[in-house]
Design goal:
about 200 residues; mainly alpha; rod-shaped
Length: about 200
């Protein structure tokens, strides 16, 4: 009878000595799986950021050219109206292709910027029209201005300051989706001229 409790104690000790490595192994497997899952999420996030940066590298110069054209700063004199219309097509395509990789705020900001700069749906098979005045543009380029370009312009013009604000919203949305603090990286652009007509 005295051997009975001793046997149970020995069995408990033996069970504990066997169970400890099993529990530690199970815990190790669990930690390993969590670590692998975390590494996968981290790898996926890294790849997403890399892709977003690639899209930024591709789109930001196009947005900047449109900004320059509509606010009369930078390279605006070097761009012909048909080239700016083609910029819109290129930007639209790239925005729609990139939309699944960015948040809704980015897509909405891009579409608002485009809508401010371009008048769309002007007729079946017709190009978008530029919402800016052409008078100063033609005055600035008297030697190579093509009068046919005047058909590229809408009757109403967007306020250059509104265009600049819409551009800033696009860049802020880009920055947020890339994970960069927006206010510290977006320098203010030049002030549009006051005598635009």
């Amino acid at each position: 009878m005295e051997n009975g409790p001793w046997n149970w104690l020995e069995i408990a000790k033996l069970s504990a000595s066997v169970m400890t490595p099993v529990v530690l192994a199970a815990f190790g497997i669990y930690v390993h799986r969590i670590t692998k899952r975390f590494e996968h999420v981290q790898w996926r996030s890294q790849k997403l950021i890399e892709k977003r940066l690639s899209i930024y590298d591709d789109l930001s110069p196009l947005f900047n050219d449109v900004l320059c054209y509509f606010t009369y700063i930078g390279c605006w004199r070097d761009l012909n109206p048909p080239d700016v219309v083609n910029l819109k097509r290129s930007i639209d395509k790239k925005i729609h292709l990139a939309a699944p990789l960015f948040g809704q705020k980015f897509f909405d900001a891009c579409m608002a910027f485009q809508a401010l700069c371009f008048e769309t749906y002007t007729g079946w098979g017709r190009d978008a029209l530029l919402r800016t005045a052409f008078i100063r543009r033609s005055e600035c380029r008297p030697d190579d201005w093509n009068s046919e370009w005047e058909a590229c312009f809408a009757k109403s013009a967007a306020d250059p300051n509104s265009v600049r604000d819409a551009y800033r919203k696009v860049m802020e949305a880009f920055s947020e989706d890339i994970g960069v603090h927006a206010l510290s990286v977006i320098p203010p652009s030049g002030r549009p001229p006051l005598n635009v007509r």
